[in-house]
Write a structure and sequence with these properties.
The structure is a single chain. By secondary structure, the chain is of the alpha+beta class. The protein has four domains: 41-307, no CATH class; 309-374; 417-505; 524-657, Immunoglobulin-like, CATH 2.60.40. Helix content is 48%, strand content 12%. The protein has 21 helices and 13 strands. It has helices at 28-40, 44-69, 72-83, 86-93, 99-122, 126-142, 148-160, 172-196, 198-213, 229-232, 240-255, 260-276, 291-306, 311-326, 343-347, 350-371, 379-410, 417-424, 446-454, 466-474, 582-590, and strands at residues 433-437, 457-461, 479-483, 502-505, 524-530, 534-535, 540-548, 557-563, 568-570, 617-620, 623-625, 633-643, 646-657. The chain has a five-stranded mixed β-sheet with strand order 6-13-12-8-9, with no helix packed on it. β1 (433-437), α19 and β2 (457-461) form a beta-alpha-beta unit. α1 (28-40) crosses α2 (44-69) and α6 packs parallel to α8. The protein is globular.
């Protein structure tokens, strides 16, 4: 699991984000992606294809389980609900961290359940062998979160031995086979890692423990988040009460011990929720492994509610639709008093508000029932129509969020600096090394994307370490330097749209520009132009900027605006009306620097001001958004730069907004 077989510079073993031996996740998702690249060639499509195929596998398993346990209608409804998830779309596209691991986890969990249930029904070993292998794949996708099906098999074995159980559980040999096949490969992998990389394995073991007991990397969440905003991440905030009610519903039905299906669903859902109560660190997609069970439970609940005519059932069905309206006008701090015991509910009071709405709707429907009790109406049909309308409105709201998410990400989907660099390196020698000059916080690592697209060994190197890295690489063969800083001697390729990089081959000259002595207090700009001149509202403008750095760029910030004869409009993209949660957070992280906030980072965030050498000549290709509300007309794009030493404004290209 090494990121690079032969790194040029020493790496940090004590930090998994900067280590070369990467043990933070099990290897299966990455093996799946590697096989896709090997078969189809190096492209973003090949990198994402395993996620798409695993999503289709999950959909099939969810439908097959629903049809097998409850009927084709429930199976189709469960698969449809799964397909509506905005987070699911983000994961398949690779827009949310943990995409490969979470999609793989859910797929192999669903496949394991389907195979294990068939094995229990036939009382044979063939399907249990398949279930054990799928169990192994789930654990090799995301460690402990993949063990839940194995625990469910134990629960079914115990329950099946009770005299009052109305179903058959697995046999003892089936259980043993499932556990040996399901956990054996993972145990073997862990032993291998501890033997092969003992120091890194020990560090990773400590990191895993810190996930349990601390706010690791800022992902610490309180217990109530598991039943509030982390559930909202799966679908939308409006469906929180539905999901919790579905979990309670299948748990109640499972307690009656009449069928195996509800016990499966209850164990899978609550077997994920309850252990996580003891874990401090909870990433946004931590519940994705229970998504197949959640969708099936929702389908069962909704199908049952649609067959009922009671006021309580109708109130529950209409709660999401009413929440979508009422939630926009409800003060966000009305539940703040609960912060000492329920911090997540105090900040995002989705669940308390939905419970209040449900209780109010119960009162309304009960009153309506008594008021209409003496009137002869086609009550059954009317109630059914109302119930179907309620479900349709709620699911339409989730679909609307999904469409908003897709639209928001489409605005800048072509912005990827590594993609244009990869095109220039397609014909590079296979043993060539690529040095990407830039600074990283550990998570932003374009060199890894470049390696995936080209097969070359690319490393992101801080500006101060470029020369020693170059010397080490030169001793091994051809070397390419990708850098925003211009150097004498001419480059193999210059910056392109959305990609502010020079590419130098087998030559390392000093950076062009002056020194700190005599350098201006403020940066100087040589060229500021756009590659096109006509745009529409909502478009993005690829801007070319050629600079001479100031004596110090530390603390310098800049922003863009559109200026006409009568107005000045900040070049900031309008935030889509996304619900708070995983999708909105991913959009903020993946948007080009300054897309929403206005302050555009230097070199796309890879060369903070304090890393830019005094007087260096450098080039950028940032994307500047055209706000949706800008009026048609002629504008001049201006850039305002503010440094501790002063401020200045630069006039750029004239553009036409249609």
């Amino acid at each position: 699991p090494t990121l690079l077989d032969d790194p040029l510079l020493p790496f940090r073993k004590d930090d998994w984000t900067r280590n070369n031996v990467w043990l933070h996740m099990p290897p299966l998702p990455f093996w799946q992606a590697a096989e896709s690249l090997a078969l189809l060639g190096r492209s973003f499509f090949a990198l994402r294809l395993p996620n798409l195929l695993l999503l289709l596998l999950t959909l099939y398993c969810v439908f097959a389980l629903g049809r097998r346990w409850f009927g084709a209608r429930e199976g189709l409804l469960a698969a449809g609900i799964y397909l509506l998830s905005p987070l699911g779309w983000l994961l398949v596209q690779g827009y949310h961290f943990g995409d490969m691991t979470d999609v793989s986890l859910a797929a192999w969990v669903a496949a394991c359940i389907l195979a294990a249930d068939k094995a229990i029904e036939t009382a044979g070993l063939r399907w249990m062998v398949a279930a054990g292998l799928f169990q192994a794949a789930a654990v090799l996708s995301k460690s402990a979160l993949g063990i839940v099906p194995a625990g469910a098999v134990i629960v079914l074995w115990v329950a099946g031995r009770w005299k009052r159980a109305g179903f058959r559980g697995p046999g003892g040999l089936q259980v043993a086979l499932h556990w040996v096949l399901g956990l054996g490969p993972y145990i073997g992998w862990q032993l291998y890692c501890r033997y092969r990389w003992p120091e890194e394995a020990a560090i990773e073991a400590r990191a895993q423990w810190l996930h349990v007991v601390s706010n690791y990397e800022g992902h610490g969440r309180s217990w109530d988040a598991l039943f509030n905003d982390l559930v909202a991440n799966l679908f939308a905030p409006a469906l929180i009460l539905w999901v919790l009610a579905a979990g309670a519903f299948v748990l109640w039905r499972a307690s009656r011990m009449k069928d195996r299906a509800n016990l499966w669903l209850a164990t899978l859902a609550w077997g994920t929720w309850l252990p996580l109560l003891a874990v401090k660190t909870k990433v946004p997609a931590v519940l994705w492994g229970m998504m197949p069970a959640a969708c099936l439970s929702l389908a069962v609940l909704l199908s049952s509610l649609l067959r009922r005519t009671g006021a309580i059932s109708l109130a529950l069905l209409y709660t999401p639709a009413v929440f979508m309206v009422v939630g926009k006008y409800t003060p966000g701090d009305f539940f703040r008093f609960a912060e000492p015991v329920a911090p997540a509910l105090a900040v995002w009071p989705h669940l308390p508000l939905q419970l209040m709405i449900w209780l109010c709707l119960c009162a309304v429907f009960i009153a309506a029932k008594f008021a209409l009790s003496g009137i002869r109406v086609h009550g059954r049909k009317a109630v059914t129509v109302l119930a179907v309308l309620a479900v349709s409105l709620a699911l339409a709201g989730v679909l609307g969020q999904l469409l908003l998410v897709r639209s928001a990400f489409s605005k800048f989907e072509g912005f990827n600096p590594a993609a244009c660099l990869a095109e220039h390196l397609r014909k590079a020698p296979r043993d060539a090394r690529v040095i990407v000059e830039g600074w990283t916080n550990g998570r932003q690592r374009p060199a890894l994307t470049l390696s995936a697209l080209t097969g070359l060994r690319a490393e992101l190197v801080a500006p101060s370490l470029v020369e020693p890295a170059w010397k080490a690489a030169s001793a091994k063969g051809s070397v390419f330097l990708a850098t925003p800083f211009e150097r004498p001697g001419g480059s193999t390729a210059g910056p392109e749209s959305g990609c502010g990089w020079f590419l130098y081959e087998n030559s390392l000259a000093a950076r062009a520009g002056g020194t700190s002595t005599g350098t201006a207090a403020l940066p100087e700009i040589e060229h500021f132009y756009a590659e096109e001149s006509v745009f529409s509202a909502g478009d993005s403008i690829a801007v070319v900027l050629e600079w001479h750095a100031a004596a110090s760029m530390s603390g310098c910030v800049r922003s863009f605006r559109f200026v006409s004869a009568t107005t000045s409009i900040a070049a900031v993209a309008d935030r889509p009306a996304l619900e708070p949660g995983a999708a909105a957070e991913a959009l903020e992280k993946l948007a080009p620097p300054g897309w929403f906030g206005g302050h555009v980072e230097w070199c796309g965030g890879l060369c903070p001001g304090w890393t830019i050498p005094p007087g260096a000549r450098f080039v950028e290709r940032p994307l500047v958004p055209v706000p949706d509300g800008v009026a048609p007309g002629r504008y001049v794009l201006r850039m305002d730069v503010a440094c501790p030493a002063g401020s200045r404004s630069f006039s750029g290209p004239a553009v036409v907004i249609e």
